[in-house]
Design brief:
Blueprint lengths: L2 H25 L5 H26 L6 H24 L5 H8 L2 H11 L9 H15 L9 H27 L2 H23 L4 H6 L1 H22 L5 H8 L1 H14 L5 H33 L1
Helix pairs in contact: 1-10, 1-11, 1-12, 2-8, 2-10, 3-7, 3-8, 4-7, 5-7, 5-11, 6-11, 6-13, 7-11, 8-10
Subcellular location: Cell membrane
Main location: membrane
Protein name: Drug/metabolite transporter (DMT)-like permease
Length: 299
């Protein structure tokens, strides 16, 4: 798979998550946030299982214990990120949540640099800042004073960065992205259902009321989108992946207009354009530099 194809897969994940943001918000009208996480990832586990089993039949060797522990660690980061975002939505606006979640675009290259001691391509830094400005404009260009939900969402952005870095490490190291998907989904499903059973009420009526959201988020947002992310990150870096996944904000706005009757301001359209420019720069600048280097060597 080429880096361009990997980035297009990440763009697809961003589109699915953008549409899924609506489902995340409406599901809590009848279901608790942790139950929603547990049930959506139970569906995602069922989706990933046949793919992981097929991958196992073609794997040259069993997955090592170290990689299995890495899969679990990735699942823990994913659960913590999903839980903090979902609970945060109870006490913050969708506008604030959309912008603050997008801060993972900035956190990811910072963590990559200082924790992994890897320097991203120079274009990642201006692209990350540009994408953040675009998300801010798309969110309305303003947000209210920080609430508890906002602080939880900032934590969520940090944890998304941790999850992306873990995927980048263990999907490449193990060469088993589908097994990684299965394990991280199962971790989220078990933790979500266990914790929700202890702290949140549940009923068949509540599940029926949120069934569409559970199935959409489970099959598409959790299952398909994260599988695409895990496969794609074998061929690109976590900081570059973060920039393409930030298209989630762009697609969330688009689906809000198409499905919910929302409107986008002039600043919002400018934000869409800025995010698009950031993604183009991330993809094109490294390729242009490679072409220039090849021409220099040929000369």
């Amino acid at each position: 798979m080429s880096r361009l194809q990997a980035n297009l897969l990440l763009l697809l994940s961003g589109a699915i998550w953008g549409a899924g943001f609506i489902a995340q918000s409406t599901a809590m009208e009848s279901l608790g946030p942790i139950w929603f996480i547990g049930l959506r990832f139970a569906v995602a586990t069922a989706v990933a299982l046949p793919f992981a089993l097929f991958e196992k039949t073609r794997a040259p060797a069993p997955t090592s214990v170290g990689n299995r522990l890495g899969f679990v660690l990735t699942g823990l980061a994913l659960f913590a990120a999903a839980a903090s975002q979902q609970v945060g939505l109870l006490t913050t606006s969708v506008t604030n949540s959309g912008f603050l979640t997008g801060l993972y675009v900035v956190f990811t290259p910072i963590l990559t640099t200082f924790v992994l001691r890897k320097r991203p391509h120079w274009v990642v830094w201006p692209s990350a800042l540009t994408a953040t400005v675009g998300i801010f404009l798309l969110s309305g260009g303003a947000f209210s004073a920080l609430s508890t939900g906002d602080l939880l969402t900032i934590l969520c952005a940090f944890l998304w960065s941790v999850q992306m870095i873990c995927v980048g490490i263990f999907a490449i190291r193990s060469q088993r992205p589908l097994a990684l998907s299965l394990v991280q989904f199962a971790v989220c499903a078990v933790l979500g259902c266990a914790i929700a059973a202890a702290i949140e009420p549940i009923s068949l009526a509540a599940i029926r009321g949120a069934l569409f959201e559970i199935l959409y988020a489970g099959f598409f947002s959790s299952g398909l989108a994260f599988i695409c992310q895990n496969v794609a990150q074998r061929y690109t870096t976590a900081p570059q992946a973060a920039i393409f996944l930030s298209s989630e904000a762009l697609f969330a706005a688009l689906f809000g207009v198409l499905l919910m009757g929302d409107s986008i301001t002039a600043a919002g359209y400018a934000g869409c354009a800025i995010i698009f420019v950031a993604m183009l720069a991330t993809e094109l600048v490294p390729e242009l530099e490679k072409t220039k280097e090849k021409r220099g060597e040929a000369a």
